[in-house]
Structures are given as C-alpha cells and as structure tokens.
Amino acid sequence: MLNPDQFMDIALLHKEGRSLREIAKLTGHSRNTIRRVIREKVPRAFRTPSRPSKLDPFKGYLQRRFREHGLSAVRLFAEVRAMGFAGSEIIVRRFIHTLREAWSAKLTVRFETPPGEQAQADWAEVGRFTLPGGQVIRLYAFVMVLSFSRALYVEFTRSMRMETLIRCHQNAFAYFGGWPRKILYDNMRQVVAGPDRINPRFRDFADHHGFAVRRHRPYRPRTKGKVERMVHYVKDNFLNARSFTGLDDLNAQARAWLVTTANVRIHSTTGERPWDLLANEELTPLNAITPYQVVHCVQRTVDAEALVQFERCRYSVPVSYVGQRVVLDARPGSVLIRSKDCILAEHPRAKTAGARVEKPEHVRERWQRSIAPPSAPPSQGCIVTFGDEVQRRPLSLYQEIVS
C-alpha cells in the first residue's frame, strides 16, 4: 500500500513526461503499480483488512439483547462469557460502541472526597412491573453511595413517604456500618420543604444522627454525579430484564447482587473494589446513638363507633370524642392518639389488616352509652286538652239500662 508521499512522487514523474520504465527504475515500484497510480489519480483511502473475530458467533445475540433492553457492555460481556466467549471485555465494548449513538462528551471536573466525608442519596421511580399473578405495581428505588469508597446500597419500595425514606436511611446505615458527616440530596420533597429550608421531620432525623443535609446546586446535577450514575447502573445491570415474584423477592435479589456484583467489582475510577475501600471509611458507628424512632403523624376524624382508622386497621378512643379531629402518631410498635397535647389512648400497632384494637374501658363506655335510659322523655308531636270537665254518672244508672 503506497503512502501519500509515494503516490505524489509517481504522479509528478509522470507529469514530467517520464516513461513507465524510467519511473519504475527511479521509485523502485513495479510497472503495474505505476499504471494504477496514473489511472486512479488520487490516493486510495486506507481500509482495515477484515479478519475473523472471536465475537462473530455472538454478535447476533448481542444485537438482539442490546436492541430489546439496551444493556451495557459489562452486562453483555458477562452473558456471552457464560455462553463460551473466550475473548476480552474490550472486544465487547468496541462492538457495543458501534451499536450505540455516540454522545458528545462534556468537560467535567471530578471532585473526590476524603473518607467518611460524604454520601449521595437519590430516590428514583423505576417503573411499573407486573407480578406473576397479574398485579401491576409501581416501584421506587432508594440509592445511596459513599463518595470515597463508592460502596453502594439500594432498596426498592412501593411508596416515597417520609417514614419510608427514613427507614431506607436506617437500613443503609446498618449495611455500611455507620453514616458519613454529610449526605447530598437533590430537591426531593421529603427532604426539601422550600428554598433554603429542610423538611422539619427529616431535619429531626438528621440532627439525631448528627449528619449535615446538603442540596446539590440547582441545574447542576453533575454535583451528585456519583449517585446519578449508580441509579443508571442499578437499572441497567440489575433491574433490566430481571423477573421477581414480589417486593420481598426483589429486595432479596438486590441484596445478593450488591454482595456478588456491585460492591466487589473493580471500580473504573478508584481501580479498587468498593467493599475493600469501605473498611477505610471513617463513618460514625451505629452504637454512637440510640436508635431513632420513626413516627408517622396523621390526622383522623373519630367515627360513630369511637374508632379511628389507620392503614386499614381501627383503634378506639373515648366516646366523648366522636366526630372530633384527633392526631395519630404511629411508631413501629405502637399507635398514640391525642387531641392537641392531651393523650387519649395508646395501643399496640395492629399486625394484620382489618383488625380492631380497643381498650376494655372504651368498649364498656360505648355499651353504657348505648343502653343508658334517655335523660328526658321524648317530645310529643301533638297534645290534646279538654276545656269542659268530664261528666260523672253513678254505676246504678247503667245497671237499670241493662235490666
């Protein structure tokens, strides 16, 4: 293959009127090569010679899986390796790159944090899923990643309520063995109550543990890029093309995936396994404080049976509060019902749906009210009076008539 300089030399010699024999003698190329250069007039573009690849038998499978689910090269490499592919991961990466439209790269300054300094958390809706029984459920994923070690925790839920968010934090702290000095969030409404204002209930939880709540800069999602990438990683490497029988089964699979895949892989940035670096994280240990009690606070109206409803269960209060608004504080093991600062009743939390939890004194009071005699006679709709005195006759007069 001639390079551009050799091609131009032959073209110039031919333009000077030299013969093929003379050009061949001066350049050292064959006459056929010189004839081709004269005939083509422009250099040929270089083409990489096609060679057989170890990936050829698996390309159809890779194309189908990528087209149907958009799986990453890491996930697809693991699948074809189990099918017998003997090549390296870089071959799969190059092939997947040809299938994916190139994204323009953005200049980003990477910010690394010291051990125990920061974690990033996010809550993402991951879609609707159909269970084997046909029920369609909406799922959310809580994701937390430690910024130094890149250790990952994920938990799937069916709601995004405050008490669920706090429980997910507690489970993440238990999984990591502690919590960092700061946690970075986006503008999720469970954390952010307004401009420069943190939700008071979540603030109480953060103050109890002693970590600072930080928000990423508006319109700058890259300031929490670690957790953003982990959300995509969870969807692609774990959740995509995976089946489960229910929420408990999904979370069990997620825990196993964290142990066998996510936290033992070699991280592309740190070059080490997150699980190994987790030992160097300077986290606040779990035994540093007493466990935080999660309280679900709602308002309810007492019904005609002197009961209030919460999560498909009913709890009793004194009969005198029928029809009034009360506040219900639900803790993991108890339910406290109050009217302003007055505690009306405290019950153990029901364990089954549809249960009635009642205090004996409330039941007796309700029965006494139902069987007690009325305090006043019922009002009459009409009263008949007579102005004249009724005439009185002796019985002997009736006997004479009969005889």
Give structural attributes:
alpha+beta; about 35% helix; about 400 residues; Nucleotidyltransferase, domain 5; 4-stranded antiparallel β-sheet; 4 domains; 13 helices
Protein model, in words:
The structure is a single chain. By secondary structure, the protein is an alpha+beta fold. The protein folds into four domains: 4-40; 56-99; 118-288, Nucleotidyltransferase, domain 5 (2-Layer Sandwich); 296-371, no CATH class. It contains 13 helices and 16 strands. Helix 5 packs across helix 6. The protein is elongated and about 175 Å long. The termini are far apart.
Q: Mind describing the biggest β-sheet?
A: 5 strands, mixed
- Report the sheet-strand fraction: 15-25%
Strand order of the largest sheet: 3-2-1-5-8
* Number of separate strands: 16
Topology as a string of helices (H) and strands (E): HHHHHHEEEHEEEEHEHHHEEEEEEEEHH
Model regions low in confidence, pLDDT < 50 over at least 5 residues: 102-107
